[in-house]
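We emphasize that the prediction below concerns an isolated chain of 328 residues; any contacts that depend on oligomerization or on bound cofactors are therefore not represented. The input was used exactly as deposited, without trimming of termini.
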Amino acid sequence: MQPSRRHLTALAAAALLASPRSARAQRRSADGDVAFPAPGRRPWAGQVPRLGIALMGGENEVDRLARFDGYRALMEATFGVPVRVYPSGDYAGVMQAFAAGQVEIASLGASAYAGAWLDTKGGVEPLVVPEQEDGSIGYLAVMVARADAGIQDLAGMRGRSLAWADPNSASGYLLPRAALRRQGIDIDRYFSRTGFAGGHEQAVVAVLQKQYDACCTWASGQGDAARGFTRGNLRAMVDKGMLDMRDVRLIWRSEPIATGPITVRADLPDALKRDLLQFFLALPRAHPEIYRQISRGEGTGYREARHADYQLFIDLRQEEAAARRRRG
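Result of the prediction step, given as a token string:
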């Protein structure tokens, strides 16, 4: 699938999505008047007697459940309804849970949000998006190789193997493919082989274990590279003792990508959506440790999200689907 000129132009201009100027009409955690919701059962509980949170793949299940337990308990105590978390082995599982109405909330990547929106025919909507320390909402796709592999840059990957993170990942699959093609690279010929590792963490592990020469994953691109930057999969693995950044080399990075949103079902009561919005916007200051746990790094908090920021990913997914039908 060759992205259209319109979408390549949109990809090249993706940095605009990361500009704080786009936040003019959006509430932010940094706003001084954001207060954490008072605890107590709400009237909407009659319609939604429990809340389900889907957890994305890309990290082992034990770590995911431990990292989100404080978040789950806080939401349960705040709204007075049972809250359950549902870990999924991959992005597709979360998208399917939304489509089946099994969960109400999930943090999705940009491509996974687009897929869920398409699968549910508009049945999900973005609630908030994480902000970086500079107020941006962008992050990077990065290609990582072992430091001892002798690969210095993308040119060194010719004839080598590449692991994608997940077919529904923006940074781990969709956007790198589009960006590399924009650079004139025929992916099927340039690399000796490509494959899916089953998640971002698994992709980096596959490189460290020499199963692939390099992989695509995500990073904020801000802060100390030796610590894995401020946020992202590399930082999370460094913090867990799974990765020493001296063992890897970043050989390629994308232009800024719009960070994926915390997403809710569109059919939820408006009062519930307002409560959840207040919960997330106030979370970083009211409960900073829980915020750090679920955000996997540093940042300024959250910003109200807009569906329009993800239209590019919806269009790219539709084009990929059309290309697959033509090949089939």
